[in-house]
Design goal:
The structure holds 2 protein chains of 2 kinds.
Chain A (H helix, E strand, L loop, with lengths): L1 H22 L6 H12 L3 H7 L6 H31 L13
Chain B lengths: L1 H21 L4 H26 L4 H21 L5 H27 L6 H27 L13 H21 L4 H21 L6 H23 L2 H24 L4 H6 L40 H11 L2 E6 L1 H5 L3 H13 L3 E6 L9 H8 L7 E3 H4 L8 E5 L8 H4 L18 E5 L20 E3 L4 H11 L4
Parallel strand pairs in B: 1-2, 1-4, 2-3, 4-5, 5-6
Helix pairs in contact in B: 1-2, 1-9, 4-5, 4-8, 5-6, 5-7, 5-8, 6-7, 8-9, 13-17
Classes of the chains: A mainly alpha, B mainly alpha.
Chain lengths: ~100, ~475
Amino acid sequence: MTDLFFAVVVFAAAFAIGDRLIRRVPPMLHTPLMSMTNAISAVVILGALALLATPRPMAQQLLIGVAVVAAAFNIVGGFAITGRMLKMFKSEGTAQRGDGA
Amino acid sequence: MSQILHLLLDLLVIAILLVGIHRFNSPVSARFGNQLASLALALGVVLALWRSGTQHPLLLAAAALAGAALGWRLAMRVTMVQIPAMVAFQHGAGGLAAALVAYVELVVAGQGPLDVGRLSGLAGLLIGAATFSGSMIAAAKLSGRMRPTPLILPGHGPATAGLLVISLVAGALALGLHLAPEAILVLTALLAVAGGALFAVRIGGADMPVLISFLNATAGLAAAACGIILQDRLLIAFGATVAASGSILTRVMCHAMNRRMAKVFAGHQGEVNWRPFEMFHKPQATPTTEAPAPVAAPPAAEPAADPFPTAIGALKEARRIVIIPGYGMALAQAQFNVASLATRWTELGKSVKFAIHPVAGRMPGHMHVLLAEAEVDYDLLHEMDVINPELGDTDVVLVVGACDVVNPAAVQTEGTPISGMPILEAHLAKHVIICNLDRKPGYSGVENLLYDDPKTLLLLGDAQKTTASLLEAFTPE
């Protein structure tokens, strides 16, 4: 029961802090933001790692293997494309605008 | 003691991720933010391996390398127009991974009381499976492999809801009632896959930014649900952050179209239009909402006078120009011409700004990325709220491939599907030049009043060609 309580607290705290931070992201960066958080959602690879910490029958190995391929694809693809996009953002003026809404 | 150490390590990794997200508040620091976020994820993987090791190192290494290589290859090749399709596809990959992990975890947990762990595992399985199929549909629509318009079946809404409810109940029964869980779990996952697909096919066109943001949230939610059954703090926290991000973007997109989420997802904006043989088609024939592809025949009734000389004259005299790009510009691949026009006009001493509607493009912020690819300085890009008050003082507004977002019907007419939607008020400018493919209404189906405005000059046709003609007029010999 305490475990559940802890899980709920972690979820709520992360959601609330994430919410506050993401509200400040200017609309200009919404696409890179989404492709970055998209990569983060593949954090489920940690679940696959946890399952592979003990010996698994063949069928389960296969399923987890597919999960790892999908998650690794998502992580590497997501961060790489975000980096590529952010490199394209250029400004002549040194002045930074932060007019997010 | 060591428990506290592990807690602190987890908190440190979560803090790195949150700082990374915080850095996304400006384009300059966002690159570092992206690196911090990837560092946080890498540290999470290292921690997991250090804590419990692995019994299947070969499988793990091979699968991770294969996935990483595929991801890298795709990320390096994709163009900015294809970004929404790629992101949707990746939401699907995340959903698939979550569903598979949740499934194995449920099988390992076996039958027993229907406690929070099993329930959240079931949630991870169902949300992950539905996210997977919904994202695949979204990716197919966005990449033109599937008709991008909404597809509505008879009894669509109840069928979608019913499928999702049945899969939830069946899964819960399988786990709680000591039935053969594996077979039933597979069945429930398949039901969820069908439900997710049904959910996604009825959304299309300009509503895609809402769908793609929503799938972002559900992918995060599925990961967090897996975290609860596995009792993994990092998994829960990372998943929750993604869910927060996706739900904010969903709300921002709905707000920008003045539509409630329920209306986008289950609205009766169309009649049943199930035509199975027209669902899939060759990519090049993509009919789109804002500016159908150049394949379509040009309208027969061409205006007698050639509008080009007048348009070029107005642009030559103009001191203040605002460019309003829409998704049609990207479809015509006209953004590079438009960027050159902006550079040329700036060199001629004119003030040039870009006005970006929040739902221009096919995902949140898509237009900014498209223009960044065409090397438009981001200081020239202005959000709707900032630029609208300036449009009255603007000499020429140049609309390229945008329709609904500049339709004055949204503010002047009651009772249309776009009434109340915030628009870029192009009609306030002295002259309006529109480079759209044809006079057809946009995704909303509402006739664009701006087309009939006496101060509007319509340069109909492929925007790449029309903008090239404009560019020619401004190129010194």
